[in-house]
UniProtKB/TrEMBL annotation:
<dbReference type="InterPro" id="IPR001608">
    <property type="entry name" value="Ala_racemase_N"/>
</dbReference>
<protein>
    <submittedName>
        <fullName>Amino acid deaminase/aldolase</fullName>
    </submittedName>
</protein>
<feature type="domain" description="Alanine racemase N-terminal">
    <location>
        <begin position="20"/>
        <end position="190"/>
    </location>
</feature>
<dbReference type="InterPro" id="IPR029066">
    <property type="entry name" value="PLP-binding_barrel"/>
</dbReference>
<dbReference type="Pfam" id="PF01168">
    <property type="entry name" value="Ala_racemase_N"/>
</dbReference>
<dbReference type="InterPro" id="IPR051466">
    <property type="entry name" value="D-amino_acid_metab_enzyme"/>
</dbReference>
Length: 393
């Protein structure tokens, strides 16, 4: 029984604390590689935020390179020799980090920054002055636009068509101090939106319809974009996908690599997919500190709300013992989290409840360290980014 095993492994610890179950982590890593069907997976560090675990994933077959969420993080991971291939997934306006990048030859060879306009190039030039080549990746907007004025997907790049992509690629190649090496296209309306949300059958039908139309259009358009960009630049990679869309993205002949991170931890937002189900690997434990009624147990702390829309699916959820839920009028709170259900009848003061976070790496902004559990023992305890005094935003 998993609860018994985890309780035994952590019996000497006082909650709140966080763990990663390495058996589940490794299972998820193998399943992601299986789903990638031969495409290398770039590890999305935003969804991990534990250097030891980024390295653990990179040591496995089928994984290569890191998708960082800030330039400062990429520079740090380069200094730590975590990877020699570091793609910054979002444009940067961090002048200090750009200056460090420009001054460090090793970093310039390892780090690729993201752009989707000439304004990004202008910002780099203004921040660092004349400079040697900076590696850049062109980001494509792959939202679905079925009708004029309708935008379904994340608000990311300003580049949507093959013509726009080729025009920007040509401008990049003509600029001194930049080298265009890649294209990235993240289909958030598929990769990050589960097609089987629990208890929402009508929403599920709507999502499946959107994805069934968006997916084929995306593959066709991304292929055309890459073909157009390759006419003016010698690309090293074309990145796409996320945990929720590995199969679709892998079917695109223009894509050379995939990206994934959340699927290694299996947070609750990834319970809503038909095609796959990761094992919950990242958990946190809270103590029972009150029993206001027979069927309610109040836990200490726990209000670790995920970013995004302020909806109930962003709250952490009770996991073990099974059969617990939070209260609709109180939810997960800063100093207390009441849970109810039949399982609460058996809980006593000092017992622990295992919780799951809604998103992956954000959990570790709450803890300085994470205990890596293997079987019924703690294999080792390692620092999170926060524990290494690294906060990237």
């Amino acid at each position: 029984m998993r609860r018994t095993r985890l309780d035994a492994a952590t019996k000497d610890l006082d909650p709140p604390f966080a763990i990663v179950d390495l058996d589940a982590f490794d299972h998820n890593a193998a399943d992601l590689a299986r789903r990638a069907a031969g495409h290398p997976i770039r590890v999305a560090s935003k969804s991990i935020r534990v250097r030891e675990l980024v390295s653990r994933a990179l040591e496995r077959p089928g994984y290569a390179g890191v998708m960082c969420y800030s330039l400062a993080e990429a520079l740090w991971l380069s200094e730590q020799n975590v990877s020699e291939d570091l793609l910054v997934a979002y444009p940067t306006a961090d002048r200090a980090s750009l200056q460090k990048l420009a001054a460090n030859e090793t970093a310039r060879q390892r780090v690729t920054i993201m752009v989707d306009s000439t304004e990004h190039l202008d910002f780099v030039d203004a921040a660092i002055g004349p400079h040697a080549d900076i590696r850049v990746c062109l980001e494509l907007d792959v939202s679905w636009r079925p009708l004029p004025g309708v935008h379904i997907g994340p608000r990311r790049s300003s580049i949507h068509t093959p013509q726009q992509a080729k025009a920007l690629a040509a401008k990049i190649t003509q600029r001194t101090g930049f080298k265009l090496v890649g294209v990235m296209a993240y289909e958030g309306q598929i990769a990050g939106l589960g097609d089987n949300p629990p208890g929402q059958p009508l929403r599920a039908l709507g999502i499946r319809f959107i994805q069934s139309k968006s997916g084929p259009e995306l593959v066709q358009r991304r292929t055309a974009v890459v073909s157009a960009v390759r006419q003016v630049a010698d690309l090293e990679f074309v990145n796409g996908g996320g945990t929720g869309s590995l199969e679709l993205t892998g079917s695109d002949p223009s894509v050379t690599e995939l990206a994934a991170g959340s699927g290694l931890f299996g947070p609750t937002l990834f319970d809503g997919y038909q095609a796959f189900r990761p094992e919950p690997a990242a958990l946190f434990a809270l103590s029972v500190v009150r029993k206001p009624t027979k069927r309610v147990a109040t836990l200490f702390a726990g209000g670790y709300i995920a970013s995004g829309t302020p909806t109930p699916d962003r709250q952490p959820s009770p996991y073990l013992p099974s059969g617990l839920k939070t209260l609709g009028l109180e939810g997960a709170g800063e100093v207390q989290t009441p849970v109810t259900g039949k399982a609460a009848e058996q809980l006593k003061i000092g017992d622990r409840v295992w919780m799951r976070h809604a998103k992956a790496g954000e959990l570790f902004e709450r803890f300085d360290e994470v205990h890596l559990v293997h079987g019924d023992r703690i294999e080792r305890t390692v620092p999170t980014y926060r524990g290494e005094r690294r906060n990237f935003g």
